[in-house]
Amino acid sequence: MSGVDIRYVGGPTAVVEVGGLRLLTDPTFDEPGEYPIGARALVKTAGPGVAPAEIGPLDAVLLSHDQHPDNLDRAGRALLAEVPLVLSTRSAHDRVVGPVRALGNWEHIDLPRPGGGVLRVTGVPARHGPDGSEKLVGEVTGFVLSGSGLPTVYISGDNASLDVVRAIADRFGPFDVALLFAGAARTALVPDGTLTLTSAQAAEAAAILDARQVVPLHFEQWAHFTQDGASVEAEFAAAGLADRLHRLRPGASVAL
Questions:
Q1: For the sheet containing 141-146, what is the strand order?
Q2: pLDDT digits (tens, 9 = 90+) for 37-48
Q3: 163/102 Cα distance (integer angstroms)
Q4: Are 83 and 65 in contact (CB under 8 A)?
Q5: CB contact set of 54 (below 8 Å; sequence gap of 6+)
Q6: What is the full DSSP assignment across 95-125?
Q7: How confident is the model over 119-173, as pLDDT tens digits?
Q8: Confidence of residue 1 (pLDDT cuts 50, 70, 90)
């Protein structure tokens, strides 16, 4: 079975190479500062570890959602115009300028691989906060990558629900690699719950998925995250899963 190469850019952004294809998750490349969202602003505390010009050719962008600047910023939007395909939500299809194709829950697209075969990309559910927050935070999706002779990869997007993780594990598990958006994000928009997985939930999600390897994303570089990479490491260690976790520094890569 061929492997997965992951280059961590920062925040929710990573280059994922699998089956000879190069995919980019939630493109964010702007510098630190305040980024308005409605009447509020999100504060970015650190810039990317990789510049857009250093990313190289891409076969597709996997965009979990377009409505929040910590998942798609100005530089990220500019990049979308240069890629052949963006897979995202129906809402993003209606709002984003570029080659956006909507993937509903459990819908898939087969991307041709160099030399033959396909990489299947399936849209899977994601709940960006506690029950009832959907109308406030908007539509979000996750992704599963699979194919003959290829590892099965889960990319959570901004999901805060372990019930969602269980549904995905039931359909596709076990997983070879999981990219889990963590950080326990909190904002005043949804004061009663976290908008992404807590560190403890990320460890539990890894167990539910029976994920052989885990790369955490979206746990740093923004002020609204309430738990950091050290917290993720501590919870995976407490769950006996430290050997599965690969916490990368911005700009670093790992072959899994």
A1: 108-112, 118-125, 141-146, 153-155, 177-181, 213-217
A2: 887 889 999 999
A3: 23
A4: no
A5: none
A6: H-SSSEEE--TT-EEEEEPTTS-EEEEEEEE
A7: 999 999 999 887 877 777 789 999 999 999 999 999 999 999 999 999 999 999 9
A8: low
